[in-house]
């Protein structure tokens, strides 16, 4: 098994931009990023999408900790190519899976369809917010407006 290119911290893999120690290519000295971490090209589109999803989950967790804590959230690049037979209209931007047989309920967002539908960063943030809120509401059998009053605006 090949080692992961990302350093391990506890049980979770840390992306390279969150790693604390950088080494140069010979392993002797410390290595700093090529350009500042606040520069626009430092982050990839994938990393920015993950950060936007995490921000929405934190925001909802502050308001509804008893609803958000038992859920698992995931981001995948594209939806599966073969939808389940009982889905008449599959949603290509997100999907939720209810809890069953010891597996917690899950919300999965699909990055590429959401990025193609929302051309600007603000529209993408709003689309992520609406998808997360609507999927959480679907799992709990509530209206999205109960979870987030700003939903759909």
Automatic annotation (TrEMBL):
InterPro entries: Zincin_1, Zincin_1_sf. Pfam families: Zincin_1. It comes from the Bacteria. Coiled coil: none annotated. This is Peptidase. It comes from Bifidobacterium felsineum.
